[in-house]
Design brief:
Radius of gyration: 11 Å
Distance between the termini: 11 Å
Largest sheet: none
Oligomer: single chain
Number of helices: 5
Order of helices and strands: HHHHH
Length: about 70
Amino acid sequence: MNKESILVNFGKKVKAKRKEKGLSQEELSYKANLHRTYIGMIERAEKNITLLNIEKIALALDVLPGDLLNN
């Protein structure tokens, strides 16, 4: 798996979980203590996210970090 596909898959999972929870990007960003534009960039695979921010997003979505990484 190449870097780009990892970022694309992660972004798709974040977006799907966010929508499943009925959250806007702004609401997720607030819960995760991250900027709204950063969430959008993650969902569009424009940013290489850090482990710390993966954990913040997972906690905000009430999922395990691995749930956002596994296929």
